[in-house]
Design brief:
The structure holds two protein chains of two kinds.
Chain A: H1 2-22, E1 61-67, H2 83-90, E2 93-99, H3 102-109, E3 119-122, H4 124-132, H5 152-155, E4 161-162, E5 165-166, E6 169-175, E7 177-181, H6 193-196, H7 198-201, E8 208-209, H8 217-227, H9 241-254, H10 265-274, E9 279-282, H11 284-292, E10 297-300, E11 307-315, H12 322-332, H13 335-346, E12 348-349, H14 354-360, H15 370-373, H16 379-384, E13 386-387, H17 406-417
Parallel strand pairs in A: 1-2, 1-3, 8-9, 11-13
Antiparallel strand pairs in A: 3-11, 4-5, 6-11, 6-12, 7-9, 7-10
Chain B: H1 6-35, E1 39-40, E2 47-48, H2 54-61, H3 63-97, H4 100-111, H5 118-129, H6 134-141, H7 153-177, H8 181-189, H9 194-223, H10 226-231, H11 237-247, H12 251-274
Antiparallel strand pairs in B: 1-2
The chains are: A alpha/beta, B mainly alpha.
Amino acid sequence: MIKGRITAAVAVISLVLVACSGGTTPSTGGSGALRSGAPIGSGSGGPGTNLPTAIGPGEGSLNIIIWAGYAEDGSNKKEYDWVHPFEQKTGCKVNSKPANTSDEMVTLMRQGGGSVYDGVSASGDATRRLIANGDVAEINPQLIPDWNDVAPFLQSPPHNTVGGKHYGVSHGWGGNELMWRTDVVKTAPTSWDVVFDPAKAAAYKGKLTAYDSPIYIADAALYLKAHRPDLGITDPYELTQPQFDAAVALLTEQRPNIGKYWAAYADEIDNFKSGATVVGTTWPYQVNVLKGENVPVQATVPSEGMTGWADTWMMSAHAKHPNCMYQWMAWMVTPQVQAQVAESFGEAPANPKACALLDKGVGPYAVKNFCTEYRVNDQSFYNQISFWKTPLADCGDSRGQACIDYSVWTQKWTAIKG
Amino acid sequence: MLYRHRWLQVLLLLAPPTGWFLVVYLGSLSVLFLSAFWLLDPLTSAVVHTFSLRNFQILLGDPTYRTIVLRTVGIAAAVTLTDALLAFPIAFYMARVAGPHARSLLFMAVLLPLWSSYLVRVYAWRVMLQPHGPVESFLSAIGLPNVEIGYSDVSMWIVFSYIWLPYMILPLYAGLERIPRSLLEASQDLGGRGGITLRRVILPLALPALAAGSIFTFALTLGDYITPTLISNSQFIGNVVYDSQGVANNIPFAAAFAIVPVVIMAGYLLIARRLGAFEAL
């Protein structure tokens, strides 16, 4: 009897241990063998002071936070591999950690006092936060050989250049498109009303999807900008209280029609494959993967325009492998790599010299007239995309401090999901 | 010297575990409490170390968080009840009916799923429960075509009940096993039939074990956030804490909300103690 009881007690205790270890999140990826190298940069110095004048020898390892698809090593499609050539060329072993949201990127960049990761492919809604908090280092553009080939409007854009200091190298840009399954949604949608207009969205009740991040409130604001002129929305990230409330109300109305929000891109791929969700916002990456697996999907830029991202490779102010990071930033903006990223991910490259290569078709996702299709040199199109940026209390115009800041966006997003 | 000073012996023996308890456990808990009163700078999203009750005002003022707390507690309670109902017959059979051979087989069956990863088991259920998945197809084949449980609270309840079931069976087994046979015989001698013996003898004696098992099922459900993310579209307390920390980097708000389950569990443990759960462990 007693023996049985003890056995059971031991079993229970070990079960609890199993539960505790099972309940942790998937690991955040190895911090790798961190060998500290000679620090070559310091972000907190005055303008131009303390900047390195040459890239030193690599430290043998590089830890970066990426958007999925930004560090392909040929394991998805063997034609798209720019990690192995980089490792061979520089001796820097690349450990990449995909993040699902900009917020996650900011959090990861601050891990371990900012020394766990050397760099990040940050979008405009994260860059300003990272710069303001001193998380990223000022860089010396002269160490990036292809710097002058980057499209002029991306060399010093406000999202990565502050007060004449460069905090990174522009990587590429694109928009959050509308994707649908052609076997369910028979007529191709041309407007976001298919997900936002209650009458139209009801047709796909329980099969809609949306991006699970507070920044998605801007998508609703962009829709209202076109359909509710009385609100006077000028910028979907600079919303006054009534404008913000209208966007939140629209999303609350949309909530019952959502089958599953996607936070991880793999989640969306999964649910489009199974047909659990059939229409909603997407990155071009998921469209490419799904088409590659012969899932009947199509994507478009709706008439209202779209939100989007313009990404920058930034280096941590406390990077342990700054030389490898500099080499990575230089590598990522070369025409060859730009062409591969642009084609496999589906975004406009920051370096238009990639276009000549793209027209030849780099790999299986080749798009005809890629650079025309993605409007690579079209600055007016670029200006039409509402690029992600951090919503601040300061509206940035004559309205002054009347806008809703990001912490309120986060709390309202929780409220919308309920 | 050690031999002469017994107090020194005791001190050396107890210092490491006490230190661990004080520093690692109570220390982190007090940091949690403390940071709940801090704030977040909206531009840099860095923590501002000034005392404020704002986080708690938001928590109490916004009905969203009440809904989330009620949902979390409600599902945890439903899972506990379901597991108690499912576990009782199994545990009773294992403890009082099965022979040694059948008993070890059953033990293995109960424990075997725990050898696979938690995530693997949740993902397996996700595939089965997703819209138009095997479970819905099965239900529609047996004449229930309009049941939609994919990505819902119902599917969450099913998965949690499955995952935590062993944690209810084992304490219940231990509790049922130690009921003396003589008491059951006495009940029969006095004319108590099966039902009456169960209700008036076995259940009261097994109550501490039930309470002990319910601590596991309730607490584990209360603190989970992975299953809600993968299986449903709704949020648990843990999801809001995770999003506040991981998405918004709003650690003070995450800490404030994390205090809610601590308070709930403290209350639950007090009740469980009155039911004698700790003697049953």
